[in-house]
Fold these 2 entries.
Entry 1:
Amino acid sequence: MSSTKSITEKEVQTLIQGKLSRYFGVSPKEASIDQIYKAVVMSVRDILLEKRQQFHKVMKSKKGKRVYYLCMEFLLGRSLKNNIYNLGLGDAYSKALKYFNLTLEDLYEQEPDAGLGNGGLGRLAACFMDALATGNYPAMGYSIRYDYGLFKQKIVDGWQTELPDIWLPGGEVWLTQRSDKSCTVKFDGWVKEDWTETGLKVTYGGYKEVEAVAYDMMISGKDCEAVSVLRLWRARNISHFDMKLFSQGDYLRCMQEENEAEVISKVLYPADDHYEGKSLRLKQQYFLVSASLQNIINDHKHRYGPLSLLPQQAAIHINDTHPALAIPELMRLLMDENGFTWDDAWNIVTSTFAYTNHTVMAEALETWQEDLIARRLPRIHMILKEINRRFCNDLWARFPGQHQFIDSMAVISNGQVRMANLSVIGSHKVNGVSALHSEIIKKSIFNGFYQIWPEKFTNVTNGIAHRRWLCQSNPELCELLNDCIGDGYVKDAQQLSQFKKFEDDQSVLKRLAEIKHTKKKQFADYAYKKEGVVIDPDSVFDVQAKRMHEYKRQLLNAMNIISLYAELLDDPNKNIQPQTFIFGAKAASGYLRAKQFIKLICFLAEDIKKHPKIHEKLNVVYMENYNVTMAETMIPATDVSEQISLAGKEASGTSNMKFMMNGAITIGTLDGANVEMSEVVGQDNIFIFGLRAEEVEEMWSKGYNASLQYNQNPLIRRVIEMMLRGFNGESFSEITNYLLTGAPVADPYMCMADFESYHTTQKKIKDLYAEDKMRWSKISLNNIAASGIFSADRSIKEYADNIWHLKALKV
Ligand code: 26Q
């Protein structure tokens, strides 16, 4: 394909004008900014569609293997800037827009975030689409076109409330409806089995049908041939006109439709912390996998013919257990609709699927009530029972008498269907998302499976789309990088390591500090405009931005702030480094404990403001409605990155990588990918504190005694006392109870056990900032230089080489 870079300003202008007149019937002079935004998006979409078609032709002729990435969430954020950057069209569009008296920035601001995800898992899927395209891998993502993405967070008197996220009016313009790809998904009904001379015949009847309508979104890579496609399914009622009613003249009754199907794609479930067995969620999951697999199978048949070739031509990835029903669904499609025997079908299934695990926390592991599955998905239920029966039989033969061991690996036990076990059994590879996490899953939840199939387990450490998180969100830093090491890192992030050569170059370090200051000013302006909060860009920016969760320990951060507050209350003239603690986090809507933590932080912030002298040195800011777009201005402005989860709980973390790449210095536990970060950057360039995963385990097994921590540490006592006395007129006794006497255990995420270590390390990092700016910048530079390994390009290459056996398509 000819490079899109050759598209000129004039061509762009004509494209936009054409869209304005065709779709809105207005001239450039009459057009509103919203219309111009949409016309611009349509023009970019055309360029992408054209590019995709070219790539498609090559794929078809080369018959290359493809990867299909199934995920209930894709947290895309905005797309316009990403596509224009990746296509190299910034100049042409900027110039063309002058004619409309607008800048690209004006238009970027028009776009709503596509918030079709909760947090890390959904954002990872989005980063992977970018890396897949850039690596020239033939890839397709599948998800649901939710009418409402993750809720909008509004904080009223410290309490989080949720508002619907209405993204389609500004976001739909990216989607291309593919009526030719529609299919139907069946729920409920009954199944009958009959033995005939050709074998078992299964009849499925009495079902309700839902139409799945495809919407495609193109995602460009950087300077490459490929375009990734994200196919989103929307549920639509199937209207069966009752012609009898019509002919009887009952026109209105004939037009009435049952509306229940469309609720399936209405809203994203906002929980990422615990699993809830809701019938609608089950329907969403099956809707996604059934539509996607029908689509994959149809395309495969159309292109290659026999389904026996599926494993050679397709790698299907299940991202966490949420799409795990893909396993019995592919069995169903192969057997019931394509005449395969069980054994042949099972071979195809297990050589096609791979599965990524993203959590070891028991409460997040998905299990479904067997009777719910039996009712909603009767044929799938049968297949699940058969998968389980055969698997348990094999285990009985290998491990006679070992009831407990076998039961721990069963798919169905005690009336529950365990999706993680199903995913392991139905996949040829299972991976964790950081080195530590991949070790932990082998020792804990999947230990039995690891004993029988050690070769199945592997690791792929997460990565981030560094072109979005560095190049687009921090052009100032990229200018410095370009001056020092050239721009090779844009396509090959490992080249960032060359930046290390400049660690003692005073002028580079000075420029680095200036850039950070610029980004801090930009964020302070943004925060002022958005929320009216005043932030001093000369204070150190200490940021914790991620979902609000007990295990991520925003509470530990708050406890340290309270202890600083105490120090300043005792001596308001104390000379300390001025600090701004910034939080951004949504809590799952039903997660009351997390909502209490938000309230604590907000009330603490208000309380501090009552002491102007203290407030000058200690500022706490809770940013409302943290999302991808906010992250893009917040992360480059950060000095200190908080990665303080209880060791063993955070599977990887990905914001840790984004902060690092933007030169923030991490204060963190040895958890998730922090472990690898500390290895690549070196102990001197990261502030590690707290218990290690094995120490946490040991402490638990001996019985963790929270009140001992309290009794032994006067600082903790002071913090607890202050919470009890309250902030801004409100006591936080529920939280002090949680820490001291909570049921079933007090302080379940060991904030108190790690407090002392965190507090001293906090002091160290802030002293360094106050006392030695040059050393600070040097450490910052070292973090940037070591961060290249955390590019999603590297992760995707590992998936392609080791799991999917997928080759990049070279043109
Ligand atoms: C499950 C059932 C019903 C409703 C919702 C869910 C659900 C939805 C989302 C459960 C979990 C999630 C999201 C999990 C998640 O984001 N995990 C994070 O994944 C990142 C990418 O691998 C890691 O970096 C984080 O450590 C991990 O917490």
Entry 2:
Amino acid sequence: MIRSAVVPVAGLGTRLLPATRSQPKEMLPVARKPVVEYVIDELAANGIEQILFVTGRNKTSIEDHFDLGESAVTKFFYTRQGSPRGLGDAVLAAEHFAGDDPFVVALGDSILGLHAKSQAVSRMIEVFEHNAAACVVAVEEVPLAETGQYGIVAPSGVENGAVRVAHLIEKPGPEKAPSRLAIAGRYIFSPRIFAEIRRVEADQRGEIQLTDAIERMCTAGLRVYAVQLTPEERRYDVGNFASYFEAFVEFALADPVHGAELQEMLRKKFEVLAV
Ligand code: UTP
């Protein structure tokens, strides 16, 4: 049973400046809740009982936010990434927390599904356990024209109903993409990932990429699998303004209390524009 998750929230969020000049992007509200609260709710609904936040400078509001958490069962722990040297480096900060057990990694800026009702992590845990996997990644089908923005998996077949991953290609153009399956913000790792992260060299920006460490697992012959998100579990990536705005509008329109009012207001606005 996998009961632990790591939520990296130490990135600088430079694509969301100036909104992120002094506050974390993970605390930006999407309708009524900050992004990261959806992530935590989703993890709790998938049986996760302890969560380690990997935080950094200017991120204390995240700790404050969860002080008075409504979730009675989830326990929160915090550690820091000295400087934001990439997602791989952030996961490395979880080594002591993880110990000898497998664990989930959930990006603190990515919501799965409109009400964060996704059961993807539970399906990933099942695949991990049934296949003696070293790693399972969530993937989402993206348009061919957009493969250059994501880590894309090269599938090698299906084993016990799960897609086996032969390789990961970082941001391939449409002509080079081995599939349209993009890594989508949720991972499960065996502790072997730490040794692989240590062997990854920093990229041109000085960042240690998590996908490079997973690719090392693939080339070492370890079992890596992909679990596809359903359309209802689509990923909202609050990493740039276009997708942040989309997430905010969709969640606000679907709000049980204020949604109808907002729909009516927008309908009137568009009616005026259409005249
Ligand atoms: P991104 O790659 O989107 O984050 O990380 P970023 O570096 O904050 O964004 P830009 O490029 O400057 O706009 C995805 C998740 O991983 C965390 C981020 O906080 C985010 O939740 N992360 C990223 C870390 O914890 N540490 C890092 O060094 C990088």
